[in-house]
Design brief:
This protein has about 190 residues and is α/β, with parallel strands linked by helices. The chain has a single domain, classed as Rossmann fold (3-Layer(aba) Sandwich). The protein is about 30% helix and about 15% strand. A 5-stranded parallel β-sheet has the order 4-2-1-5-8. The longest helix is centred in the middle third of the chain and has 12 residues, at about 85-95. It is globular and about 40 Å long.
Length: about 190
């Protein structure tokens, strides 16, 4: 079953499902297909992570999601607030939410969400964190953390056309600190 069929089945079984969405290039086609099929109307969609930039910036996950999926019930990081206030506001937003599905990508360095190698947030017990990276032009990020991700009912990792990442996930050569996506293996739905 491909990723569209998985998401479609979850929404059909629970129209008001809570679904956490990642940004980046990989999920764009999936979001467009969900919109075309009208599956963007009833679920509650949440951001997994966001770059700390204005929402109308071309690199904003908010912009990507609103333009490709156009969700009617969208809960997002408010980057018009200070970083600390944006983290606190989103923490309150997702406090009582268990995601029915968490859609994640994995970067070439093994980051998932905005949880980067060697980041102090890898061991956070909080649900939301501010992280930083020197690997990308936009340094400051806002993200949900592994405790929140791993409590999701289902996790779907999008690694289509990324054979080197799939190979590392299947046959690890790096630790979870070096390749944070390895922490996803703690989830019962990971296979």
């Amino acid at each position: 079953m491909d990723e569209f069929e998985i998401v479609k089945k979850i929404i059909k079984n629970k129209p008001d499902a809570c679904i956490a969405l990642s940004g980046g290039n990989t999920p764009g086609p999936l979001y467009r297909k969900l919109r075309k099929e009208g599956l963007n109307k009833t679920p509650h969609f949440y951001q997994v992570d966001e770059r700390y930039i204005p929402q109308d910036n071309p690199d904003s996950n908010y912009k990507l999601i609103t333009e490709t999926l156009a969700p009617e019930n969208f809960h997002y990081f408010d980057t018009s607030l200070s970083i600390d206030n944006a983290v606190e506001a989103y923490k309150k937003e997702i406090k009582d939410i268990t995601f029915d599905l968490c859609l994640l990508g994995v970067g070439p360095d093994g980051h998932t969400a905005s949880l980067f190698p060697h980041s102090p947030a890898l061991n956070s017990t909080k649900s939301v964190a501010h992280t930083t990276t020197n690997q990308f032009a936009i340094r400051d990020r806002l993200t949900i953390t592994f405790p929140k991700i791993l409590e999701s009912k289902k996790i779907l990792v999008l690694v289509k056309n990324k054979p080197e990442i799939l190979a590392e996930l299947e046959n690890p050569t790096k630790s979870p600190v070096e390749f944070p996506a390895h922490q996803l293996k703690k989830h019962p739905s990971f296979s």
